[in-house]
Amino acid sequence: MRLILRVLGTWLIGLALVLLVIDGTKSLGADDLVLTSLAALWTQLHPASLEAMQNFLGSRYFAALLDATLAALLSYPAFAVVGVPGVVLALAGRKRRRERFLQSDQI
Cα separation of 77 and 100, whole Å? Predict the structure, then answer.
């Protein structure tokens, strides 16, 4: 299980770094800070799936809450939306370290 979490976290962190480099190159070209939102990225990749997700969440019981949550999530930069869960998954999959304190005569 830890291996799956670490691999998935590493892939998400890698994707976040790629998205950050793309935003960095756009920022250098525009001489201004350019951050691509998740909505803009999703629209570029597959607009039909974004519309399907909005329709799906609109038909659920807590539609107003889900729509507000999705709208807030889509407004954030894409690298942050992908990178934060990646870091959380990578940290969840790491090996727990036990701190062992040695006495001077045990060295």
Answer: 41
- Which 8-state DSSP code applies to residue 62? T
Q: Is the pLDDT of residue 77 over 70?
A: yes
Mean pLDDT of the chain: 91
CB 11 within 8 A of CB 86: yes
Residues 7-20: tens digit of each pLDDT: 999 999 999 999 99
- Radius of gyration from C-alpha coordinates of the chain: 20
Return the percentage of the chain with pLDDT > 90, whole number.
75
End-to-end CA, the chain: 35
- Cα distance between residue 88 and residue 91, in whole Å: 5
Three-class DSSP category at 37: strand
Sign of the CA dihedral with 28 first, then 29, 35, and 36 last: negative
Give, in degrees to the nearest 5, the angle at Cα 70 between 22 and 62: 170
